[in-house]
Specification:
The chain is an all-beta fold. The protein is built from no helices and 15 strands. The strands form 3 sheets. It has an 8-stranded antiparallel β-sheet, with no helix packed on it. Strand 1 and strand 2 form a beta hairpin.
Length: 211
């Protein structure tokens, strides 16, 4: 058409021409776009040791919930926990006062559980049997952060993790938790190991479309 091409998704008020039984009419993009999908916000690909993966922008009141999807993750140290911390621009990431609970099943038949309440919990642990870091071991996880911009409820984080533990057994875990000290709005989330660095993995942040 020799017209300028759009380089991003059309705005809701952008218009298209359609033929309605031979009659040309215009229609807003908002009426024909899909709903309920994931909106890519940012992605970090770790290829060398880093202390944490921080998402410090893009988390606000735009969406009711946000997701992090992590693949091919490996830690520098064996038999340690992967943890989640939330925070805000005023206070940084919160260190203490998390509650968490988890339930897992290992390939050898063991059922494992984890929990914690109080000021000694530095983040929400996603696993309770340490993840493995051998050359043939990795894991991935998906988590959801709910209503981060509200100021009347604790911020819920929950999800699932799957991968090889330090005994070289496949493990799948359901996990969740809250920052229990306050109901302040949060605008950032961090993935961090309980000890040592993150060696590799791709970590992607999505907003969950509200409709």
């Amino acid at each position: 058409s020799a017209q300028t091409a759009l380089a991003s998704e059309p705005a809701d008020t952008d218009e298209f021409l359609v033929s309605d039984a031979g009659v040309l009419k215009r229609i807003d993009y908002s009426l024909i776009k899909g709903g309920g999908g994931l909106v890519l916000l940012s992605s970090t690909n770790v290829t060398s040791a880093t202390a944490s993966v921080d998402f410090t922008s893009g988390i606000d009141s735009t969406y009711d919930s946000y997701k992090i999807h992590a693949t091919d993750v490996r830690l520098a140290s064996d038999d340690v926990d992967m943890r989640i911390r939330v925070g805000n621009s005023s206070d940084g990431f919160f260190d203490n006062n998390y509650q968490r609970a988890s339930l897992g099943r290992e390939a050898d038949g063991d059922t494992t559980t984890g929990s914690g309440v109080g000021g000694g919990n530095v983040g929400i642990a996603m696993n309770h049997s340490g993840v493995g870091n051998a050359s043939d071991e990795s894991y991935g996880f998906e988590l959801t952060l709910v209503k981060p911009s509200t100021t009347d409820t604790h911020k819920l984080v929950y999800g699932t993790l799957g991968g090889m533990n330090d005994d070289n057994h496949f493990t799948v875990i359901m996990f969740g938790g809250v920052y229990n000290n306050a109901v302040s709005a949060v605008d950032r989330i961090q993935v961090i190991a309980s000890s040592g660095n993150i060696s590799r993995g791709r970590f992607t942040l999505f907003g969950v479309a509200n409709s």
